[in-house]
Automatic annotation (TrEMBL):
GO MF assignments: peptidase activity
Segments traversing the membrane: none
Family label: Belongs to the peptidase U32 family.
GO biological process: proteolysis
Signal peptide: none
InterPro entries: Peptidase_U32 (IPR001539), Peptidase_U32_C (IPR032525), RNA/ubiquinone_mod_enzymes (IPR051454)
Protein name per Swiss-Prot or TrEMBL: Putative protease
Domain Peptidase family U32 C-terminal per the UniProt entry, residue ranges: 321-401
Pfam families: Peptidase_U32, Peptidase_U32_C
Originating organism: Carboxydocella sporoproducens DSM 16521
Alphabetical keyword list: Hydrolase, Protease
Amino acid sequence: MKPELLAPAGNLEKLKTAIDFGADAVYLAGQRFGLRARAGNFSRFQLEEGLNYARQRGRKVYVTVNIFAHNRDLEDLPAYLEELQELAVDGLIIADPGVFSLARRYAPRLPLHISTQANITNKEAARFWADQGAERLVLARELTEQEIGEIRRYCPETELEVFVHGAMCISYSGRCLLSSYMTGRDANQGDCAQACRWSYALVEETRPGEYYPILEDERGTYIFNSADLCLLEYLPRLMAAGVNSLKIEGRMKSVHYVGTVVKVYRQAIDAWLADPEGWQCREEWLEELAKVSHRPYTTGFFLGWPPQQAGQHYLSAGYIREYDFVGIVREETPQGLWLEQRGPFATGEELEVLTSFGPNRQLRVEKMFNEAGEAIDRAPHPRQLVLLPGVAGIPAGSLLRRAKQ
């Protein structure tokens, strides 16, 4: 069985990057009814362009319609579902039974996937959704390897999708009220403020103003702050458990994150397909995953319950950032390479180039010019176009980063 590599597409640029770097499919949201309200998301025009880009390359596009809907949401939902069917997207990702029912009625030709927000944590829940006509189940992150295998045996004809990489939530598969209570931003309507990442202290009710830290550093403590998931080393065991689709979290993450993580998992999957018995997790893959912004990695619940590795990161809400993402190659011309700046860089610096295929390469910035043809020694402005003269052989869409000093 060839597993699907499923990548996040928070906007059109990330969709194209995910596909160029090896994703078999992407998941995204329209401008309503999805659980990432602050991702770029897609207008109808952008969705059409993204679908065309994917189809020309034989890839799939799934659309999230996974809010927990209130009555006020239902008025416009049928027309939106009909629009998605007209566009012939490859599947809808749904959490709410009412939305599922409407999708069966207004988009009957579209495959329906059950979102991780539906909290499928047991085989009977899986069988229930399969009996309703769901073609794929996105299992809860809180399942062990053994539990995934049991669900596969109980529902042998239903596709199973599992998160293998990215941020995790303090609450069961994202069902959290903390953001709504503290900020008025409803996580279950796609607008999470990530209040779990803030600094907290313990207060006893009869001693107001007295704050008791837990595992304190100079900024407080982070008792709700989850580590990031990484199951790359356990790819053969995921396959043995019967997983059809390996899902990367991160519609809010950068294009650098998307390109780097997708390329690593693409290489790992292809290596497993070529030699399942001899497959080993390569050190360079793990080194690449360390180059994207991330929290400490964990295997979550996959190896057992309770988690066999620390699932919480108590000391800080910050990310580990060993590299800075500084630019994207936009075009190679006879004059040289045009870059779009995504972070300040300067002449004399060594950059690492990540292409969609092959090994990384090093690039020293000897000279650069702005769009007016003026020589510059720094590129300080966001999305500034910069020419590196005399540089060739680096394809458009390649990503540039710089190691932190």
